[in-house]
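Annex B. Sample input.
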Amino acid sequence: MTLLAIDWILLIEKLILIAIIVFASLGIALYTTFAERKVAAILQDRPGPNRAGPFGLLQPFADGLKLIMKEEVIPNTANKFLFVLGPGLAMTAALMTCAVIPWSSQVHLFNRTIDLQVADINIGILYVFGVVSMGVYGIMIGGWASNNKFSLMAALRGASQAISYELAMGLSLIAVLMISGSLSLKTIVDQQMAPGHLWNVAYQPLGFLIFFICALAECNRTPFDLPEAENELNFGYHQEYSSMKLGFYLFSEYVNMIMSSAIMASLFFGGFDIPFLDESTLAPNLAAGLGVLALLVKIAIFIFVFMWIRWTVPRFRYDQLMNLGWKKMIPLALVNMLITGAVILWLQGK
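Annex B, continued. Sample output.
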């Protein structure tokens, strides 16, 4: 078999893997909306969606069909090109994050060994931060192109919020990178799975807490949902959007939540590692399948916590949000980084 043929086979494998991850992410995001409404109903002592299909399980499809069937409206005074670009950019940035997440170990199919990771690049964390930063442009472009003052105010809130909390998030990750010595998510997960090594949350509890709070802000989740703030800014930065453009903005928030959960699980909770189980004793394909399941369970737990917080914690005022980001999160992340460096130096000197 020629080198060219091998490259084509590898390309096809990666395209199939990308398609599976994208459609699975969209499917999970679809039912995350249903899960959020059910969690809210349980916390508020009401039944929630229960009419569309058995137990209301077809409600997400009804909502999606409603968005597709709605009329496409573009305001006369809007910048039409940017108005369409905004939601597309937000959705694209949300889905691109999945490229560097290791979903499980290798599988063996058709006499080939296939990595369940689209790209294992040695700067995976930097790639994630670069892609996440692009999502801010989707919010900002959508708010500005709408030519609506409320949309613009919400977009400005979102941009300043994202910039503020990305700093603390990055500083909290430096401590993890100091421990692992690598920017590759696959390497970080492998280190946590090594014999005698605990998950990073055991070494970096404060770093995880800072990262989790910043992830809430990055995903525009309560109590940091200032860019939307429906009861303050008339539905927020996507005020003028309808049909699937609005659907893209709403879906991108849930996809971001799924990807943030996957990154937190990979960085701090062993990724696809199964607690108290030696995966090397299992058949490779069985271990890979169980690894995917383990990662999905961890993601589901994080998503539930996201929802739980939304329906129990009130929204911050804008000045409180910025005060927390600049005066609390960033100093805490710096202190955590300095303590981690001191401990590493002390251990090396022993």
